[in-house]
């Protein structure tokens, strides 16, 4: 039975043991360090390193984003970090649903 | 204010201002137009009750959206959700008509979307979906027995035959995406299901493991292998596989400050008109007074909305206790906001957090494992041959 009640935790809840077992079994397929992610950031998509997650414009040049990342009105070259929709995504403001239960509201895909 | 509402520690005053309700304009309203469904998926978070939204509540919901969105000119959207919304096609037409008339009157843009289990996309309903230009998200588990295992009808029969007869019709619609729910016992079949959907002409597929399921090392290993297969498949496939497509890019950024739009640009309305941060709160906390953030007849409860706005921000999340940090991050700073996996982590879902830990800002540690599977599958594929990502030697026996 999958449906839990509030505060239920999954069986085999020892996450350290899970991580260790997966590492033992899959090695380099599973192992990942924060340094590798930092390497990814610096080499693969350096333009995203300091970019606003909403509009991809570097923070130091974007004058419309504020601390919250929600008031940006830059509607060019936006690729929503959540739903990966393109530059006309009406939910690029961050109203995408992270679990993917609901579709993007735009109707012109 | 309830005890639950007092559990989020407010950060410094500068960030605190970002949590003010006035800083967040509603754009998307999710309407649970019925809480009844013709399926009984055993992991579904919506409790099935014979309750549907009245036309009066539907009209109040439309009026509420336009009133709450008055502060901006941003495009608006309404999502039809359930239960199974296609049990109520006449109500969908009513709401669409009321909202489009109001949009014309107020000179606003509005679009519509719907999440469906695909069993009721008949010729007649497909015609309505196309005519009303409703974007469709089809929620499935997969091919054949994978679909039948958990997605059963009220009388316990599998639902694959019910959806299979509609899929060609659905694939011909303009704006369709498929959401594949993944459970521990279906993870291994995930690539087969994706290939099958690609062959049927679906071009947008998202993959969603059930966070709160009973994951084991074996099933997590199966999920890792499936994700690796999909990441290898993506570059050549004529399909957008999210999260596969987004993971590498998401990991390239520092991670979102906001988990999602819940309580901010988005809210959900249950059949009785109560407002919640999102649709999942309606299901996990049916009749949960503490999770309500207002009513369409009276508007937002500002304090309750701001509580969830605050919980939605990464700075409010203390972490799962198992995050992935660079050595430079001090032990006392090992919270979600500094975790390298934040951008691909389910900890961004407040509803699942509150469901699993009792606190919308506190994620369950299983998120760390699921996020690492996603990230590892993506980055090892993207950086094959790079010295920082040594070639994996395959599963060890």
Topology (elements, then pairings):
The complex is a heterodimer of chains A (109) and B (397).
Chain A: H1 15-26, H2 34-43
Chain B: H1 13-18, E1 28-32, H2 55-68, E2 76-81, H3 89-106, E3 110-116, H4 123-131, E4 134-140, H5 145-150, H6 160-171, E5 176-182, H7 190-199, E6 204-209, H8 217-233, E7 240-242, H9 244-251, E8 266-269, E9 274-276, H10 279-284, E10 294-295, E11 299-300, H11 302-312, H12 350-357, H13 366-382
Parallel strand pairs in B: 1-2, 1-8, 2-3, 3-4, 4-5, 5-6, 6-7
Antiparallel strand pairs in B: 8-9, 9-10, 10-11
Could you name the key traits of this structure?
heterodimer, A: 109 residues, mainly alpha, 2 helices, 20% helix, extended, disordered N terminus, disordered C terminus, B: 397 residues, alpha/beta, eleven-stranded mixed sheet, 11 strands, globular
Write down the secondary-structure element order of chain A: HH
User: Which of globular, elongated, flat, extended, rod-shaped describes the shape of chain A?
Assistant: extended
H/E order of the elements of chain B? HEHEHEHEHHEHEHEHEEHEEHHH
Structural class of chain A: mainly alpha
Oligomer: heterodimer
Report the C-alpha radius of gyration of chain B, rounded: 21 Å
Radius of gyration of chain A: 19 Å
Largest interface chains and counts: A-B, 74 and 121 residues
Relative strand content of chain B: 5-15%
Model description:
Chain A is mostly helical and 109 residues long. Chain A is built from two helices and no strands. In chain A, 20% of the residues lie in helices and 0% in strands. Chain A is extended and about 45 Å long. Chain B is an alpha/beta fold. In chain B, 36% of the residues lie in helices and 13% in strands. Chain B has helices at residues 13-18, 55-68, 89-106, 123-131, 145-150, 160-171, 190-199, 217-233, 244-251, 279-284, 302-312, 350-357, 366-382; strands spanning 28-32, 76-81, 110-116, 134-140, 176-182, 204-209, 240-242, 266-269, 274-276, 294-295, 299-300. In chain B, strand 10 (294-295) and strand 11 form a beta hairpin. The radius of gyration of chain B is 21 Å and the shape is globular. Residues 1-7 of chain B have low confidence and may be disordered. Chains A and B meet through helix 1 and helix 2 of A and helix 1, strand 2, strand 3, strand 4 and strand 6 of B.
């Amino acid at each position: 039975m999958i449906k839990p009640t509030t505060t239920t935790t999954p069986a085999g809840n020892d996450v350290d043991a899970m991580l260790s077992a997966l590492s033992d079994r899959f090695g380099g397929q599973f192992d990942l360090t924060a340094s590798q992610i930092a390497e990814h950031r610096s080499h693969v998509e350096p333009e995203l390193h300091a970019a606003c997650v909403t509009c991809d414009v570097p923070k130091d040049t974007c004058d419309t984003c504020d601390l919250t990342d929600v008031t940006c009105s830059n509607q060019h070259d936006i690729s929503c970090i959540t739903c990966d929709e393109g530059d006309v995504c009406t939910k690029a403001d961050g109203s995408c649903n992270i679990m993917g239960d609901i579709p993007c509201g735009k109707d012109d895909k | 204010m309830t005890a639950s509402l007092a559990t989020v520690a407010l950060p410094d005053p500068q960030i605190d201002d970002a949590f003010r309700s006035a800083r967040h304009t509603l754009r998307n309203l999710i309407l649970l137009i019925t809480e009844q469904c013709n399926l009984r998926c055993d992991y579904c978070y919506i409790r099935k009750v014979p309750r549907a939204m009245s036309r009066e509540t539907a009209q109040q919901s439309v009026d509420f959206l336009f009133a709450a969105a008055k502060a901006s000119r941003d495009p608006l959207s309404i999502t039809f959700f359930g239960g199974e919304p296609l049990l109520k096609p006449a109500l969908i037409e009513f709401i669409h008509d009321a909202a489009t008339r109001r949009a014309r009157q107020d000179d606003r843009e509005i679009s519509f979307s719907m999440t469906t289990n695909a069993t009721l996309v008949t010729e007649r309903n497909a015609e309505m979906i196309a005519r009303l230009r409703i974007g469709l998200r089809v929620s499935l588990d997969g091919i054949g027995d994978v679909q039948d295992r958990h997605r059963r009808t009220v009388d316990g029969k599998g639902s694959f035959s019910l959806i299979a007869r509609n899929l060609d019709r659905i694939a011909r619609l303009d704006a369709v995406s498929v959401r594949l729910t993944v459970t521990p016992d279906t993870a291994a079949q995930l690539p087969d299901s994706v290939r099958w959907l690609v062959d049927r002409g679906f071009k947008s597929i998202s993959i969603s493991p059930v966070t709160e399921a009973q994951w084991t090392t074996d099933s997590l290993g199966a999920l890792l292998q499936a994700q690796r297969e999909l990441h290898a498949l993506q570059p050549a496939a004529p399909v957008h596989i999210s999260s596969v497509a987004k993971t590498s890019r998401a990991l390239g950024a520092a991670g979102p400050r906001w988990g999602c739009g819940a309580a901010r640009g988005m809210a959900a309305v249950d059949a009785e008109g109560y407002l919640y941060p999102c649709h999942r709160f309606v299901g996990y906390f049916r009749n949960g007074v503490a999770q309500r953030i207002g009513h369409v007849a009276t508007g937002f409860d500002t304090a309750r909305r701001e509580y969830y706005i605050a919980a939605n921000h990464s700075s409010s999340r203390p972490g799962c206790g198992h995050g992935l940090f660079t050595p430079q991050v001090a032990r006392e700073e090992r919270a979600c906001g500094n975790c390298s996996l934040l951008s691909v982590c389910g900890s961004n879902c407040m509803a699942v957090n509150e469901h699993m830990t009792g606190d919308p800002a506190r994620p369950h540690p299983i998120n760390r494992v699921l996020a690492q599977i996603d990230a590892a599958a993506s980055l090892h594929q993207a950086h094959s041959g790079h010295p920082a990502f040594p070639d994996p030697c395959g599963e060890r026996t």
